[in-house]
Known about the structure:
The structure is a single chain. This protein has four helices and seven strands; from the N terminus they run αβααββββββα. By secondary structure, the protein is α+β, with helices and mostly antiparallel strands. The radius of gyration is 16 Å and the shape is globular.
Amino acid sequence: MSATTQTKQEAMRPVTKQLVVEAPQERAFRVFTENFDAWWPREHHIGAAALKAAVLEPKKGGRWYEICEDGSECQWGKVLEWDPPRRLLLAWQLNGEWKYDPELITEIEVTFTPEGPKRTRVDFEHRYIERMGALAEATRKSLDGGWGGILDLYRRVAEG
């Protein structure tokens, strides 16, 4: 297999993460969705101004976006499926240059599986990254590293 073929295959693989949260399923889902702003890192934003709030509207068809300190809003995507407290499916519509692209959809699926009354397994998958074209490989590498740290912040808030 050539290096180019391996690179293309790597870019097509989804970014997957799995973590266990010491919290009931309902809390794990609610913190991920309705308390999204409490754990989203302030340095991860696309607007020109600093991030004031990260918003995930809790419904199918809801928006996923940021509000900047200057009052501007920057879209990230939309809620494709809303199935509390089990599953969330988001459209990530940021391209490889971290700009909103309404024509691009990669998907983020998050499932919440109880492993006991106070423990939840969270499975995270960011897929269809190859849709980013020439920037897919570099973007996938960035997302793979970035999602791990971001999800660790989520876990801390969910367990707090």
